[in-house]
Amino acid sequence: MHDPIQSIETNNAATDGAAADQPIVRIRGLRKSYGSLDVLKGIDLDVRRGEKVSIIGPSGSGKTTLLRCINRIEKPSGGHVYVDGQLIGEKLVGDRYIDMEDRELARLRAGMGMVFQRFNLFPHLTALQNITIGPMKVLRTPATEAEAAALALLEKVGLANKRDAYPEMLSGGQQQRVAIARALAMRPKVMLFDEATSALDPELVGEVLSVMKQLASEGMTMIIVTHEMKFSEEISDRVIFMDHGTVVEQGSPEEIFRTPSHLRTQTFLRAVL
Ligand code: ADP
């Protein structure tokens, strides 16, 4: 039987020889503008396999846009993103970059699990069906196999007893945990979290953070946009502070939260801590 949890770990481990020490995510010169508004002004960032990187910064600094450009929900205005050595959304033909076909992009996007602020579950599907639909449609996983994997994932996020519940019957925290299970079902190489807890009532935040912590302890590569500074400090290998579309500074949680070197980081942290 196909073991989804084993697969996640295998997928995420450094299994492909020469590529093992390459960054799993490589971002070069990433830019995004909306009209005359330059939201990302040339971001360079490498994320190692298994690394937990959190991105903090003031509202409007471009954090969400960065995540959306990584998995190409938004098309960048410039620069390139590679995941596991593979260029995302474009191909190099001669010396020109051309857009990749939608089907190929969908396949690559499946390798990046995205968890949104709003849970984005399909309202007309049960928890189980929300999890199986991606593997069945995109990965062509047979239904029985997809279901077994989905059940194991529901178990993992503590919701095995909610398999037949529709999203409206679930609390926000439960919906978000199903959303995490749904992303994991695609056996992603990296998980992207976009303020995954900021739409939740305070008493429901903990259950989602604890699932994220468990995932981190299992070696998943995670890029986490968050306002939860304590969580960020606890979970991250590296913290990135963004402001006005640039990476202002980055370092260990200790460096960023205790001894930030930039005035902008200091000012931001004074306001939020
Ligand atoms: P953050 O996540 O740090 O709060 P965002 O990436 O959401 O920042 O937004 C950065 C800036 O880009 C903001 O000024 C926002 O208004 C603008 N922006 C984001 N998406 C769009 C869009 N689709 N059209 C126009 N402006 C946008």
Automatic annotation (TrEMBL):
The keyword Transport applies. CDD domains: ABC_HisP_GlnQ (cd03262). It comes from the Bacteria. One of its GO terms (molecular function) is ATP hydrolysis activity. Residues 25-269 form the ABC transporter domain. Transmembrane segments: none annotated. It is found in: Cell membrane. Its main location: membrane. GO terms for cellular component: plasma membrane. It is a peripheral membrane protein. Keywords: Amino-acid transport, ATP-binding, Cell membrane, Membrane, Nucleotide-binding, Transport. InterPro entries: AAA+_ATPase (IPR003593), ABC_ATPase_HisP-typ (IPR030679), ABC_transporter-like_ATP-bd (IPR003439), ABC_transporter-like_CS (IPR017871), MetN_ABC_transporter-like (IPR050086), P-loop_NTPase (IPR027417). The keyword Nucleotide-binding applies. Belongs to the ABC transporter superfamily. This is Ectoine/hydroxyectoine ABC transporter ATP-binding protein EhuA. It comes from Mesorhizobium kowhaii.
